[in-house]
């Protein structure tokens, strides 16, 4: 018998939050959705019982948490499922949710630790997971490195803030503009990326899917538009090591770069939250939203699941954008296979029974592309109000203890 729960999904603008809403409804749960902007596609799903607009998750964190708790109380919400970096903020205030609603997030010390790319590099070294040569910018010694190098923020998402530095002179120009303790220097690796999406419970990896972005938009590199699942035992083992080492619970997603010459997968990032792999997982036999609820309601009934390979997801309107971008640039060879079979593939936004969210998300992304550059950038504009901004959250002693343990200070 299926347990019918009232589930609140936050950050409904993300396509995987929309997937979550649809999959939970399919399971028979009553779904509520919330976001900090009205242009969040998931708010307009026909499967949402009621939708809400909450305050910015970081700058107005107290108001955000109070708003969520009010929804929980008034609508008797059983399960809270964070859709993006709001998970970090909810984790920070985790004790305020105890006894009021069920949620599956790690302690903030572990979330903050994994959100820090430098901490991840030190953790990887400690537990023997390959990672790129990495130092903090403050500790960088040019004589010990070969150029070019990569400069990136310790705490960020996607490709925001990453710089490719060709030589020492270019590096000197940057040195006065960056906080030397908040930026990393890394060796560049071949851009053959594999991503994972998984869910863990009490230090055990319950399910994990590995996938590769076959196409991205913008065409030169960006958001995956077509993703296929793979079976790479080394990557699965590495994610399991991390989960076990820090006794992790919740969604966990990681990025790896493959160096063919060294035949090695190097970990570059860990995201302690949901990711686009959620629907790749579903196409590959893993229903992550169902697992999330089941682990909260009856954890003993949940058994580990292995993903199928060769299946995946695509985002229809972004695929169209990719096609025309490639066409207009005259890169005709890249079009090979574009019109091939999509057997085993699922569109992660379009649903003929629930069409409105796809149109809302399309116009939201379009407005971000057109207006976003005037407000700090396309991605920054799209993510307005939903990002974890660490300056608003004094780190706890437990975070510092983890950093000291793995020499990440």
Report on the architecture of this protein:
GO terms for molecular function: ATP binding; metal ion binding. Pfam families: ATP-grasp_3 (PF02655). Residues 121-297 form the ATP-grasp domain. A hairpin with a 4-residue loop joins strand 12 (250-259) and strand 13 (264-271). The termini are far apart. The chain has three domains: 6-112, Rossmann fold (3-Layer(aba) Sandwich), CATH 3.40.50.20; 133-188, Dna Ligase, domain 1, CATH 3.30.1490; 190-382, D-amino Acid Aminotransferase, Chain A, domain 1, CATH 3.30.470. Strands 9, 10, 11, 12, 13, 14, 15 and 16 form an eight-stranded mixed beta sheet that branches. A four-stranded parallel beta sheet has the order 3-2-1-4, with helices on one face. It has helices at 15-26, 61-74, 86-92, 108-115, 117-126, 168-175, 233-245, 277-283, 288-297, 316-328, 356-371, 378-382, 397-405, and strands spanning 6-9, 30-35, 48-53, 79-81, 134-136, 149-153, 163-165, 183-186, 193-201, 204-217, 223-230, 250-259, 264-271, 305-306, 312-314, 345-347. It contains 13 helices and 16 strands. The radius of gyration is 21 Å and the shape is globular.
């Amino acid at each position: 018998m299926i347990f019918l729960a009232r589930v609140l999904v936050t950050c409904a603008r993300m396509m995987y939050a929309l997937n979550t809403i649809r999959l939970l409804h399919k399971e028979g749960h009553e779904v509520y959705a919330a976001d900090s902007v009205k242009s969040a596609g998931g708010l307009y799903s026909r499967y949402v019982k009621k939708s809400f607009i909450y305050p910015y998750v970081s700058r107005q964190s107290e108001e955000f948490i109070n708003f969520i708790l009010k929804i929980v109380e008034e609508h008797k919400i059983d399960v809270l499922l964070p859709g993006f970096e709001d998970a970090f903020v909810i984790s920070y205030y985790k004790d305020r949710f105890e006894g009021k609603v069920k949620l599956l997030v790690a302690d903030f010390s572990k979330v903050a630790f994994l959100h820090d790319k430098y901490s991840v590099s030190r953790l990887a070294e400690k537990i023997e997971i390959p990672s790129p040569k990495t130092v903090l910018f403050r500790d960088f010694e040019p004589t010990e490195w070969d150029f070019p190098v990569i400069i990136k923020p310790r705490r960020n998402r996607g490709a925001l803030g990453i710089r490719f530095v060709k030589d020492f002179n270019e590096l000197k120009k940057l040195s006065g503009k960056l906080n030397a303790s908040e930026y990393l220097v890394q060796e560049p690796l071949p851009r053959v990326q594999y991503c994972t999406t998984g869910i863990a419970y009490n230090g055990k990896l319950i399910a994990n899917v590995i996938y590769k972005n076959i196409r991205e938009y913008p065409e030169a590199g960006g958001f995956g538009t077509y993703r296929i699942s793979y079976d790479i035992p080394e990557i699965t083992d590495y994610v399991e090591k991390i989960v076990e080492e820090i006794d992790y619970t919740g969604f966990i997603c990681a990025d790896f770069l493959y160096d063919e010459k060294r035949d090695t997968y190097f970990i570059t990032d860990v995201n302690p939250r949901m990711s686009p792999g959620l629907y790749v997982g579903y196409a590959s036999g893993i229903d992550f939203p169902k697992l999330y609820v089941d682990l909260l309601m009856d954890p003993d009934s949940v058994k580990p699941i292995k993903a199928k390979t060769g299946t995946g997801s695509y985002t229809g309107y972004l695929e169209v954008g990719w096609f025309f971008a490639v066409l207009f640039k005259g890169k005709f060879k890249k079009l090979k296979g574009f019109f091939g079979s999509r057997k085993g593939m699922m569109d992660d936004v379009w649903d003929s029974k629930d069409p409105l969210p796809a149109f809302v998300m399309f116009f939201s992304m379009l407005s971000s592309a057109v207006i976003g550059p005037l407000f700090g950038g396309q991605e920054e504009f799209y993510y307005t109000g939903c990002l974890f901004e660490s300056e608003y959250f004094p780190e706890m002693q437990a975070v510092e203890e983890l950093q000291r343990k793995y020499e990440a200070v």
